[in-house]
Amino acid sequence: MKMKTKTIIRTLCAAALTSTLALSAQATTLTMSNWVPPTHFVMTDILQVWADQVGEVTEGRVKVRVLPKPVGSPAQHWELARKGVADITWGNFTYEPDRFKSLWFAEMPFNGDNAEASSVALWDTYQKYLSTNPTFAGVQMLGVGSLGPGVINHGSKDIITPQDLENQKIRMGGPIQKRLIEELGAVPIAAPATKAYELLEGGVLDGSLHTMESVVNFRLSEQLPHHTLIPGGFYDGTFYLVMNERKWKKLSEEDRQAINKVSGAAFAQLWGQEFKRQIDNATASLKETGHQFSAPSPELLEKIRSVRDNLMQEWAAQGADFGVDQPKEMVDFHRKRYLELTGE
Fold first, then answer.
1. Domain that holds residue 221
2. 3-class SS of residue 273
3. Among residues 170, 242, 271, 338, which is most buried (max CB within 10 A)?
4. How many CB atoms lie within 10 A of CB 116?
5. How far apart are alpha carbons 120 and 269 in whole angstroms?
6. Could you give the dihedral angle defined by the CA atoms of residues 86, 71, 52 and 270, in that order, rounded to the nearest 10 degrees?
7. Which residues partner with 315 through β-bridges?
């Protein structure tokens, strides 16, 4: 009897082991390249959350493994996915402005104060107008997101009128921010946000463009105590989450459908909710510590609007060059979706 029982146990254990090995063999592991610190909220509260969701909805058949270090610079991450150096990457469209000129409209002033609504509106706009655009070929677009309302931050004074900006050295990124700074009479200094601290400490900069969460998360609170909040944002930023197209097509139809359920609009919502939460928390924290928050004068607001209108007209006139036949229609659709999502 004991021998029979032992035989049954061995058989069951062998079967369980075989089943486990079979599942392991069937599981697909996708690599993700991440270029922010592993403790940054984009990694912990957005990308890792999404990666965990992928494992759950595919019942463990697809796993996402974040690489211990990035396999290239932030600006290279689109190409890294397209070429399959990493299976999945994320990045900022602004890092390749000429390539992704079709998305400039979503980075201009007055894009919106609600990062969740602007992120979802951006996804819906991409799906309707850009998903078949050759610019985006070679990857599977898994999601997009917006940075949220950009703020004019200064080290020593409130920026209220156009005169307050004259000859001020302001850190910025991308052609839209550069044009805004130049036409408002300030001196644009191109530098990544990660360099803002040392440039402010060294007196190279008088101010720097950031969202409120960026002021806190890049530890610039002491260097930038003055903030001018432009209704709808002085600028915005757009981001992507993409996967190598060949690797995507190798997944089963069942797993692709499952991953799509936690990607697309769902990812845009996840992204936007977290950025909105970070912005709201940072704003409240800085107000509590005595930071100065200013509203722009009507004169400054009108000047920003004038620069934006000129930029938008120039951009729309080049629509054929970046594969958009009806750029104004696309902009109007994006705005309409944003207003629907915010209930305005």
1. 151-235+279-342
2. helix
3. 271
4. 23
5. 6
6. -100
7. none
- Report whether pLDDT(161) > 80: yes
Quick one: pLDDT band at residue 133, thresholds 50, 70, 90? very high
3-class DSSP state of 21 = helix
pLDDT tens, 145-155? 999 999 999 99
Q: Which residues contact 255 (CB under 8 A, 6 or more apart)?
A: 28, 58, 61, 62
Residue 137 lies inside a defined structural domain of this protein: no
Nearest residue to 105 (alpha-carbon basis) of 303, 323, 314? 314
What is residue 42's DSSP assignment?
I
Q: Which two tokens stand for residue 51?
A: 């990666």
Listed in sequence order, the DSSP H helices in the chain are 2-26, 41, 48-57, 77-82, 115-125, 162-165, 175-183, 196-201, 212-217, 245-250, 253-261, 265-288, 298-317, 327-342
CA distance from start to end of the chain: 76
Hey, which residues does 91 pair with through a beta bridge? 240
Q: Is residue 89 part of a domain?
A: no
For helices 265-288 and 48-57, the axis angle rounded to 10 degrees is 150
Q: What's the domain count of the chain?
A: 1
DSSP class of 43: I
Q: Is 157 inside any structural domain? A: yes
Phi and psi based region of residue 296 (left: phi greater than 0; alpha: psi -120 to 50; beta: remaining): beta
Strand extents, DSSP E, 233-291: 238-244
DSSP run (H or E) holding 303: helix 298-317
CA distances to 214, 223, 310 from 151, rounded to whole Å, are 10, 15, 21
